[in-house]
Amino acid sequence: GNSVTQMEGPVTLSEEAFLTINCTYTATGYPSLFWYVQYPGEGLQLLLKATKADDKGSNKGFEATYRKETTSFHLEKGSVQVSDSAVYFCALRGGSGYSTLTFGKGTMLLVSP
Amino acid sequence: GAVVSQHPSWVICKSGTSVKIECRSLDFQATTMFWYRQFPKQSLMLMATSNEGSKATYEQGVEKDKFLINHASLTLSTLTVTSAHPEDSSFYICSASDSDTQYFGPGTRLTVL
């Protein structure tokens, strides 16, 4: 079945540092890949997505590239801000027509001034 | 982007009572809606999937008689927690899907005393 593996957190960075959160997946077929962000006490917000190999999703300075050869979708940002502190979830959908999202366990990011 | 609302955002109830949570897609018609449960510092657990006008499909281990789901229209789904007990206290998040992407509501914090 489908699965998503994320690096465990928390990830603690200083403001303006470079961020990488690793995500790898296992799926049959050709899944779509997503990053969602959850701020404290809130629901999930779609951050970015990629629907086919070599696509790069980007939003708010974050980006991730769909790498089929390494089955990865690592999230990166060149310069984090305190306001980026949140939990980040990697997810995949589909692959064989199955429409339910499969989530990773989430990675908490803490950015200090 | 697409907006999904939930109501109420938080609710406190006595043990043995029932609680209804509404989920609405505000600017699009959702072919499918999903209900998730999230425990503190954990990922989302899919409870059930529903399509408009048909019975919900529950995940293994989720009691369908306890968590009643009604998907009355393409923009509204409701989750009723019947005879709630303290162990049902959790953060419940709904999601609505168009053909490709899932959009999440802000969540409902349920506390059962």
Largest sheet of chain A: 6 strands, mixed
E-strand count of chain B: 11
In whole angstroms, the N-to-C terminal distance of chain A is 41 Å
- Beta strand count of chain A: 12
What's the number of helices of chain A? 0
Binned strand content of chain A? over 45%
Gross morphology of chain B: globular
Greatest interface: A-B, 21 and 23 residues
Structural commentary:
- The complex is a heterodimer of chains A (113) and B (113).
- Chain A is mainly β and 113 residues long.
- Chain A starts with a strand and ends with a strand.
- Chain B is mostly beta strands and 113 residues long.
- Chain B is 0% helix and 54% strand.
- Chain B contains no helices and eleven strands.
- In chain B, the strands form two sheets. In chain B, strands 2, 4, 5, 6, 9, 10 and 11 form a seven-stranded mixed β-sheet that branches. Chain B has a four-stranded antiparallel β-sheet with strand order 1-3-8-7, with no helix packed on it.
- Chain B is globular.
- Classes of the chains: A mainly beta (113), B mainly beta (113).
- At the A-B interface, strand 5 and strand 6 of A face strand 5, strand 9 and strand 10 of B.
Short overview:
The complex is a heterodimer of chains A (113) and B (113). With 113 residues, chain A is an all-beta fold.
